[in-house]
Amino acid sequence: MATRPMLIAQVDPPHATRGGDWFYRTFAPGRAMATGDGVYVVNLDQVHRKRDLILEQADVVVLNGVCNPDLLPIIRRRRDAGALTVFEINDDMGAVPAWSPVSAFFASPENVRLFRRIAQSCDAVQYSVDELMRCYGHLNPRGRVFPNQVVALPPRRAAPAVPSDGLVIGWGGSSGHLDDMAAVAGALSGFVLRHPQVTLHLMCSDAIWRLFGALPEGRKRRTAPGSIEAYFDFVAGLDVGIAPIADTAFNRSRSDVKFLEYAGWGAVPVVQSLTPYLGTVRDGDNGFLFATPEELVAVLEALAADPAARERVRARAYDSVRSGRLMADHAGDRVAYYDELLAEPGRPPRAVGDPARLLADIATWEGAEVVGRHAVLSHTRFESLLHDGLVLLGQDGDVKRGTEMLRAAAALEPQHPLPYLYLGCHLQGEADLGEALRRDPRSIQGRLALGSALLARGEPAAGFQQFLAAAELFPAYEMPYAHAARALRQLGNTKEADHFDRMAGGFARSVAPPTPSSDRGEESER
Q1: N or C: which terminal CB in the chain sees fewer CB atoms within 10 Å?
Q2: Per-domain residue ranges for the chain?
Q3: Residue 396: which residues within 8 A CB-CB, separation 6 or more?
């Protein structure tokens, strides 16, 4: 229960699907928080046409890894108004693997620094696992870990009256786990072939399915990837669930959600002996740990030979989730943390709003899905055009079609700056950037893009003025100074350019990872 009524807004990066990360980190916590007296929650993503209104009026804003320089002055204005802004880190964006859809974006050191800058600039940071707090906690003294939780468990799966000789081993996940599954495919296929009673069930992409081509059709079964509900149904049909992951910085910062899903839906969890699981799995008690493909097979051999052991571990795994990892038992944890932060001495007083009235207004918006005091703002045609057009422009896809989509979005919402901003940034269109800035003069992204376009066509003095305007919007952000130095060099002013470069370097160092000799021991540049 909050000490005062509050509206909490959870803002995600642009997305067109509702996957597991959205479910566990945004939707489920939002729905749970909204069960508390006086707590109202709205979920939306960054391209929603009502984003700025929500950011202005919400008492608490949680930015779920959103990486946009235009948020920096908004965060500052919210703090001045007594509102709270919390950054969420649930992946190590300094170690994004090549398969990730955001790998190209975070391949740029500039964007990794921006991610860190936003974490540093917010009032606090929340994390999904302890490892992420270890890696990024130096950026902000206020931090809290909120692990993933299960919303609801099915009834405990009853043990068969007569132990079955059959054994279903399975795994489900995204194509990003191709390398993880490839590492165990040979050993796992060999195990299945040696045991006629064993079948392998996979919920996976084509590429992962092809790894198991050595298995005859009768010894394997494939389920197409689908919704989170379809995934739970799939897991409910497994006797043993495996979770191989490579020992990488990105994987060490993942959550233990595979354990929760296997344990909660009746499969014996057999998971990699790596950071995400070491604090959760008691080897041989509520699950099993393995370090190599050979160890995985040894565990499976033992489980295949001992149905009683499977039932014992299955029951303990289920109990460990039921007793400590249910969302209902932790629904108030985040609200209590936000309440604590809002009550800190020295925070400007927050004008008392009317979140109930605001939510009632939100319920009338197109695309709003409201249950109780919780609203999800799904994409309307405007947001879908923005998202899809941005994807086409950003991934070297169909530029013509992407441009048409953004033009169509602009026609739907003529006063919205984002269609023009995205067009101008990706096509270096000065006219579009001018339109974006007329609608939002406080856009750092727009100022930097326009300045760069002016530099590209030989107008460094005009570009320099745009960079200075960007610096004024958030003086602690290094990129306006770095770009200003470029403009000054084009103008032949080397001494002043060096000064701006030093300023940019100083601000960049303020969000740099700790050195390897520091107490936190984070990998240099990760």
Answers
A1: N
A2: 6-151+327-378, 167-324, 382-509
A3: none
| Residue 376: strand pairing partners | 43, 369
> pTM score, two decimals?
0.93
* Burial class for 262, CB neighbours closer than 10 Å (0-12, 13-18, 19+): buried
Q: Could you give the residue ranges of the DSSP H alpha helices within 350-443?
A: 355-362, 381-394, 399-412, 418-427, 430-439
- Walk across the sheet containing 124-127 and list its strands: 143-145, 124-127, 84-89, 60-64, 6-12, 39-45, 374-377, 368-371
Please report the pLDDT score of residue 4 as a whole number. 81
Rg of the chain in Å (alpha carbons):
25
| 70 three-state secondary structure | coil
One-character DSSP codes across 127-150: ESSHHHHHHHGGG-S-EEE----B
Reduced to 3 states (helix: H, G, I; strand: E, B; else coil), residue 33 is helix
3-class SS of residue 373: coil
The pLDDT of residue 3 is: 74
> Which residues, at least 6 apart from 141, have a Cβ–Cβ distance to it below 8 Å?
none
Structure tokens at 32: 């749970």
> Rounded to 5 degrees, what angle do the CA atoms 126, 132, 133 make?
60
CA dist 313 and 268 (Å) reads 6
The matching CATH number, chosen from 3.30.70.100, 3.10.20.310, 1.10.10.1100, 3.40.50.2000, for 167-324 is 3.40.50.2000
DSSP 22: H
The pLDDT of residue 158: 81
Largest Cα–Cα distance in the chain? 86
């992951």: which residue's tokens? 245
Nearest to 291 by CA among 277, 306, 303: 277
The conformation of residue 417, written as its DSSP 8-state character, comes to S
What is the model's pLDDT at position 393? 87
Instruction: Select 382-509's CATH number: 1.25.40.10, 3.40.640.10, 3.40.50.2300, 2.130.10.10.
Output: 1.25.40.10
Give per-residue pLDDT as tens, 380-403: 999 999 999 988 987 666 899 999
Can you read off the two tokens belonging to residue 214? 């050595």
Query: Is residue 443 helix, strand or coil?
Result: coil
How far is it, in rounded angstroms, from Cα 64 to Cα 9? Answer: 10
Does residue 287 sit in helix, strand or coil?
strand
Domain topology for 6-151+327-378: Rossmann fold (3.40.50)
pLDDT at residue 349 in the model: 86
Amino acid at residue number 334: R
Same CATH fold assignment for domains 6-151+327-378 and 382-509: no
The label of the residue with tokens 């229960």 reads: 1
**Sign of the torsion angle spanned by Cα atoms 315, 319, 321, 327:** positive
Stretches in the chain below the pLDDT threshold 70:
1-2, 161-165, 395-397, 517-526
- The sign of the dihedral angle between the CA atoms of 444, 447, 453, 456 is negative
